[in-house]
């Protein structure tokens, strides 16, 4: 089992440029993926 995130983008409201652009990741069974920033936390656990 896997979760695939494709072409993620994050722009803060006060910013004109994105802080993340075109980020893709595949999280496989038993893996854990985290994006941490000043105003964003994205956690993607993958369990069967």
Task: Compose a concise summary of this entry.
The protein is an all-beta fold. It has no helices and 4 strands. The model has no long low-confidence stretch (mean pLDDT 81).
Main features:
two-stranded antiparallel ribbon, 48 residues, mainly beta, 58% strand, two-stranded antiparallel sheet, 0% helix, single chain
Number of helices: 0
Largest sheet: 2 strands, antiparallel
Instruction: List segments where confidence is low: pLDDT < 50 over at least 5 consecutive residues.
Output: none
The secondary-structure class comes to: mainly beta
Overall 3D form: elongated
* Terminal residue distance: 6 Å
Strand content: over 45%
Mind explaining what this structure looks like?
- This protein is an all-beta fold and 48 residues long.
- 0% of the residues lie in helices and 58% in strands.
- Strands 1-2 form a two-stranded antiparallel ribbon. It has a two-stranded antiparallel ribbon with strand order 3-4.
- The protein is elongated.
- It starts with a strand and ends with a strand.
SSE blueprint:
Blueprint: E1 2-10, E2 20-28, E3 32-36, E4 41-45
Antiparallel strand pairs: 1-2, 3-4
């Amino acid at each position: 089992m896997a979760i695939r995130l494709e072409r993620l983008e994050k722009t803060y409201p006060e910013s004109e440029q994105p802080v993340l652009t075109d980020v893709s990741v595949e999280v496989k069974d038993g893996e854990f993926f985290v994006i941490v920033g000043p105003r964003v936390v994205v956690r993607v656990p993958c369990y069967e």
